């Protein structure tokens, strides 16, 4: 039986966890191709993955950059994104493939991502009223977006909507892609039986300065690329206002994303990228109006 899917696993210093991921992929019921993208690991990861199809990048390009680097190598109808610290159940890929085969209007299928204690991390992504992506722990069949840690997409559709935003480096590449899929008229579905166990935080450190920098920057860039102009402008202005007022507040949360220096850096990066981002915005296919997508999904 020929493979329907290519699973792309992006790793960086994944020596302590990638073997469990690759072993779980080797046990999948559904035949597939696996491509491991090594972001210039220097911890011995290269030796562990040497028996697989590996694309080794000369520098760390992040999760988004790693996915984007090999998209043109994928020759199967579907492409899966899978974190290197995630271990899928044996039927994971087959469940996702069956779901997309049965629903031609769906361009992406998201998994049930479980933490090691058995609790649910994500069964899809919601769009909040202020434009954040938020993991859902309970959902119906259709969701706004997919969690990029374990999802299956139609390869031709992903390419047609602009691929993966490589410059995001890490975080929000999935929600940005879900925006573009929906603007092009496609659906995203949640597939409960497609289960993955995730060692959350093994690859990156949630809550770190870098985590918040990438999250805040990429959310704003995503909105500038995809959301209605009024929404994007409002959220950028709100971010600026909060940043300016932080030194005068006494009740500032103790989190890295409320540090004026980090926020100033985020604003600087967004401003530097603004011309290119607006060009990208114009190029995005909008079969469904941006306002319609926002009205249908924001705050649900």
From TrEMBL:
Keyword annotations from UniProtKB, A to Z: Glycosyltransferase, Transferase
Checking CDD domains in the record gives: GT_2_like_c
Q: Which pathway features in its UniProt record? A: Cell wall biogenesis; cell wall polysaccharide biosynthesis
The UniProt record lists the Glycosyltransferase 2-like domain at 6-161
For the keyword Glycosyltransferase, the answer is yes
Report the GO molecular function annotations: glycosyltransferase activity
- By its UniProt entry, which InterPro entries does this protein fall under? Glyco_trans_2-like, Nucleotide-diphossugar_trans
State one Pfam family annotation. Glycos_transf_2
Against PANTHER family, the record matches this protein to: GALACTOFURANOSYLTRANSFERASE GLFT2, RHAMNOSYLTRANSFERASE WBBL
Q: What family does this belong to?
A: Belongs to the glycosyltransferase 2 family.
Q: Supply the name of the protein.
A: Glycosyltransferase, GT2 family
Q: Which organism is it from?
A: Lentzea jiangxiensis
Taxonomic placement: Bacteria, Bacillati, Actinomycetota, Actinomycetes, Pseudonocardiales
């Amino acid at each position: 039986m020929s493979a329907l899917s290519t699973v792309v696993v992006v790793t960086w210093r994944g020596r302590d966890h990638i073997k469990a991921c690759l072993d779980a992929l080797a046990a999948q019921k559904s035949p597939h191709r696996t491509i491991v993208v090594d972001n210039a690991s220097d911890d011995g990861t290269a030796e562990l993955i040497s028996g697989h199809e590996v694309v080794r990048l000369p520098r760390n390009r992040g999760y988004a950059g790693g996915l984007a680097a090999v998209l043109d190598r994928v020759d199967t109808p579907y492409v899966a994104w899978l974190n290197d610290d995630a271990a899928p159940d044996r039927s994971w890929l087959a469940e996702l493939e069956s779901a997309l085969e049965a629903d031609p209007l769906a361009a992406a299928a998201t998994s049930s991502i479980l933490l090691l204690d058995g609790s649910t991390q994500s069964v899809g992504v919601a769009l909040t009223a202020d434009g954040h992506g938020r993991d859902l722990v309970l959902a119906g069949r259709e969701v706004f977006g997919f969690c990029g840690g374990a999802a299956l997409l139609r390869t031709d559709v992903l390419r047609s909507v602009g691929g993966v935003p490589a410059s995001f480096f890490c975080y929000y590449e999935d929600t940005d892609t879900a925006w573009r899929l929906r603007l092009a008229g496609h659906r995203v579905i949640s597939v409960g039986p497609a289960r993955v166990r995730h060692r959350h935080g093994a690859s990156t450190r949630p809550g770190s300065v870098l985590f918040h920098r990438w999250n805040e920057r990429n959310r704003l860039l995503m909105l500038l690329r995809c959301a209605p102009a009024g929404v994007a402008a409002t959220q950028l202005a709100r971010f600026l206002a909060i940043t300016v007022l932080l030194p005068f507040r006494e009740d500032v949360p103790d989190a890295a994303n409320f540090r004026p220096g980090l926020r100033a850096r985020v604003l600087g990066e967004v401003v530097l990228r603004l011309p290119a981002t607006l060009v990208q915005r114009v190029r995005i296919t909008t079969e469904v109006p941006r306002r319609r997508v926002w009205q249908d999904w924001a705050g649900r």
